[in-house]
Design brief:
- By secondary structure, the protein is of the alpha/beta class.
- The protein has a single domain, classed as Nucleotidyltransferase, domain 5 (2-Layer Sandwich).
- 38% of the residues lie in helices and 24% in strands.
- It is built from eight helices and nine strands.
- The strands form two sheets. Strands 1-7-4-3-2-5-6 form a seven-stranded mixed beta sheet, with helices on both faces.
- α3 links the parallel β5 and β6.
- It is globular and about 50 Å long.
Length: 202
């Protein structure tokens, strides 16, 4: 049974298939390509009802992105800070970029402290930044790139069910209960976008 049918039948949450922003996703299985860098993009939870979405991804020499691991949770920061640090270490992440809006700067500092002092790792460079662009505009304008250039594991629906549902249910128009997953995924697109043939890291 498809996720859309199950959601409509058992959770009374019908998905407007025609209104979905993302109509398809590319997937991968088997051996991964060679990556020039392993990165992470983290969108911290703005309020108690929001999700933290942290994504490890590999960037190929063609600037394609392969999602490697996802942390998508409503747990408080005392849980998500060490969990994010452990995911960065386990994934061998070279560069992590964390949105500093709404407490994200303190989150980034704590993650770096946990990595260095508790896990004994200085492998990951952590940068925080303020996101000033309109969230919906960013998500919409990068949606085609997300569908064409980001690859998800073939079993991502089973590995990260809540993240998967948030992506497939996101509507082009109308009310969206959560936009944390598309927001963080859009960050991947922005960080891999090329201008003049150069990978841009703001």
């Amino acid at each position: 049974m498809g996720a859309d049918i199950a959601s409509a039948n058992y959770q009374q949450e019908p998905i407007d298939l025609k209104g979905r922003l993302y109509t398809s996703f590319k997937t991968y299985s088997g051996e991964l390509p060679q990556f020039k860098e392993i990165r992470n993009y983290t969108d911290t939870a703005d309020t108690g009802g929001d999700y933290l979405c942290s994504i490890n991804y590999g960037v190929t020499f063609a600037n394609e992105a392969y999602v490697l691991d996802v942390l998508y949770t409503k747990e408080p920061m005392e849980v998500t800070e060490p969990a994010t640090a452990k995911m960065l270490q386990a994934g061998g992440v070279n560069l992590a970029r964390i949105e500093s809006n709404n407490g994200g700067r303190g989150f980034a500092r704590n993650v770096r402290r946990i990595l260095e002092q508790e896990l004994g790792s200085n492998y990951t460079t952590i940068k925080w930044f303020t996101q000033t662009q309109n969230k919906q505009a960013r998500i919409y304008s990068n949606s085609a790139w997300v569908m064409q250039h980001i690859y998800f594991p073939e079993d991502w629906k089973n590995r990260w069910p809540e993240y998967h549902n948030a992506m497939i249910k996101y509507q082009r128009e109308g009310q969206n209960k959560h936009d944390d997953a598309p927001d963080a995924t859009t960050g991947i697109a922005e960080n891999c976008a090329r201008k003049g043939g150069i990978s841009v890291l703001k």
